[in-house]
Amino acid sequence: MNHFYRIIGCLACLGMLFLSATASAESTTVTLYKASGSGEGEAIGTVTFTDQSDGISIQTDLKDLPPGLHGFHIHEHPLCTPTEKDGKIVAAGNAGGHYDPEKTGKHLGPEGGGHKGDLPVLNVAADGTAKESMHVKGLTVSEIRNRSLMLHEGGDNYSDTPEPLGGGGARIACGVIQ
Q: Quick check: helix, strand or coil at residue 39?
């Protein structure tokens, strides 16, 4: 009988460990807004980040976007306000550059050993919506908090050519990750 209680005790401990690991998974939802030289525009939807055992899952629910492929990144600062660079206004410029905590200076794509902020390219449907599920290894919700999420005008080839940063182009939507 004593053996029976040990087995029940072990099963209970395993169950508590499972629930503890599941309960500790962080999640955050970011509202994305259209970005322009005059500041933040209308809300275009949300992106939810959830911790997984080996990285984060990303679920997009966006609308009113130009169809096609778009560069999608975590940027350094929790700001989506415009700034001026070389005499020109840059939409969401105060978000800074791509999140690159190891200072690699390389744009190699998700899990490529360069910027940690490189996310998979976002594919927007012909009707302007993007409802995608993605996964990125090596990131956690806690490390992307207090940064910004950026959507670029063009696709992204995860290289530094064409300049700048693989041809993603202008910043068209931004949201602060809290």
A: strand
Q: pTM of the predicted model, to two decimals?
A: 0.82
The architecture in CATH of the region 26-177 reads Sandwich (2.60)
Per-residue pLDDT of 83-113, as tens digits, reads 999 999 999 999 999 898 988 887 766 777 7
**pLDDT confidence of residue 87:** 94
Among residues 95, 112, 28, 83, the alpha carbon closest in space to that of 120 is found at: 112
Query: Nearest CA to 66 among 135, 6, 152, 147?
Result: 152
DSSP character string of 68-135: EEE-EEEESSS----EEETTEEETTGGG-SB--TT-------TTSSS-TTB-PPEEE-TTS-B--EEE
Q: How far apart are CA 118 and CA 32, in angstroms?
A: 17
